[in-house]
Known about the structure:
The chain is mainly beta. It folds into two domains: about 110 residues, Cytochrome Bc1 Complex, Chain D, domain 2 (Orthogonal Bundle); about 500 residues, Quinoprotein alcohol dehydrogenase-like superfamily (Methanol Dehydrogenase, Chain A). The chain contains eight helices and 37 strands. The strands form ten sheets. Strands 10, 11, 12, 13 and 14 form a five-stranded antiparallel sheet that branches. Strand 30 and strand 31 form a beta hairpin. Helix 2 packs across helix 6 and helix 4 packs antiparallel against helix 6. The longest helix has 15 residues. Pfam families: Cytochrome_CBB3, PQQ. This is PQQ-binding-like beta-propeller repeat protein.
Amino acid sequence: MAFALFALVFLVLAAWMAPLRAAPVSTEDLLADKTPGVTAQAAQFPIGAEVYTRYCAACHETGAGRAPARIILSNMTPEMIHAALTTGAMQAQGGALSEEQKVQVSQHLSGIAMGSRASLPPAAMCTGARARFDINQPPAFAGWGLDHADTHSVTSAQAGINRANVGKLKLKWAFGFPGATRARSQPALGGGAIFVGSHGGMVYALDRETGCVRWQFDATAEVRTGIVLSPWRAGDTGARPLAFFGDWQGNAYAVEAFTGKLVWKVRADQHPAAVITATPVLWQDTLYVAISSLEEAAAATPGYVCCTFRGSMLALDARTGAERWRKWLVDQPVPQAGGKHMGPSGLPVWAGMAVDTARQRLIIGTGGNYSRPTTRLTDSIVALDLATGDVVWDFQLIKDDAWNVDCVTPDPDQCPVDAGPDYNFGTGAALARGKDGRDYVVNSSKAGIAFALDAATGAVKWTERLGRGGMAGGTHFGIATVDGRLIVPISDMPDGTKNPLEPRPGIHALDIVTGTSLWQAPAPQVCEGRPFCLPGYSGAISVTPELLFAGSDDGFLRIYDVATGKVLWETDTMRDFATVNGVAAKGGAMSGGAAPIADHGQLVVSSGYGFVTKMPGNVLLVFEPE
């Protein structure tokens, strides 16, 4: 059974690597176990081959438990695999291996000797005028959703790309992320620079004209959130703006935007599985941080008592990182019947957030429970008071949704009874005005159901099924709104579950007031002969009043006419690129939260999503009209 699911992956391997929690295995023991199936690389790295075959192949060769396919691991550097086993998401399992065994399995999986990447070209650092930030260029956008309402919309004038010149777009430069198989951090623009995080944990400030590096900051783990810049006034010579982001180990950061110097770093949640996947939101002098986790995957580990993570929202002083308030979204877990598991648990917040400035509310989307009992705020849109974190209103799309990764293992003893359907929100809600002049909160979820709520009360105005939905179907990362239209991308990738509905990958435009369909654009069928290619759109999108920018899981970047759904321009990013920093790079699937964004005549695009069964890549592309 294929489990081609979107998820947080590395801790999933705990289900199959449970023996590593025991006493460390010796090299001699590994070599004595002649398990079949070792690849041709076994001769070069025999110890690594045995570690992989004995403890890892059960997932990576079958796709079980959401593990990424072996071909995706082969696109990683040995240093990245080694880091995952030592300081990253797999450190609990890797800690039982000797250092030699970790090195060897990293080399075996990548097919490259440790240290080989030391020959990579040094970072292409900017010099002279290219190294200086322009104080006359304040941040172009407020955050991940491009504005505080999370609309993913910019004006045609600001974009500088329109129906007249879209056909003239040409690649200006490409930047390769070293040692990466995915590019999913939403870039921020300001000061004449592009600020972006990376799979390798490096955050870069790149010169917009040339792609040279103004500064780079090494975070503890992958930075998949977008970068948020604090605003400044054009020409303010005293401006000291900050750049905010979160990492894969649950750390929130503030660094100086013009130097990359660390100002503060906060562990946002002490739970060992806590991560930050949603881009923080800056409003006035407060940074709002959403907490997600990898514990739904750890639940698959034999003997693990599931589950203890509690989703929460954290408000921090933007200048100091001091906590102002925290809102827990689920009660403290306690032992349940027979002590076999803990509950309630879960409710991660891993999507974008919107700020309703008129009503002083923060609008978030939640995930499901990891264990029973289920709770009220699962799979919900929730409006919180900006000053206190108190719940003002909530709308629950799916009730009774309890699920964890143990539900897809051969021995699902930690899977909740009547589990699923795992239809939570990975897409941030948007605050948008309809053509009737009223404010609505709009969104779509993995269920493939779009909807509109009254912004003041949370009352449902309409719902509309657009896709089949599924654990990996429906809408994943980003809707967009413009001029009374709601634009919804649909993935509907297969997830191995039975579903009576047919998949409907593509893009839909709806009237915000009524939910009436304005147009539909089915996903082109171009995947024949392209390994790991999928039709459909699971990544974030962006719009202007004229254009829709959408990257697809098939590797194509397409620009649509936002009024008709007609494709005006497209380019295939699944190819090799010559990069300004000399790093070998190629594009792939475009998924995750990094929407293509247009600003002042440039289109900035991230390509590559080597996650589960999607096409890997490691490139940032900048296009301009000729």
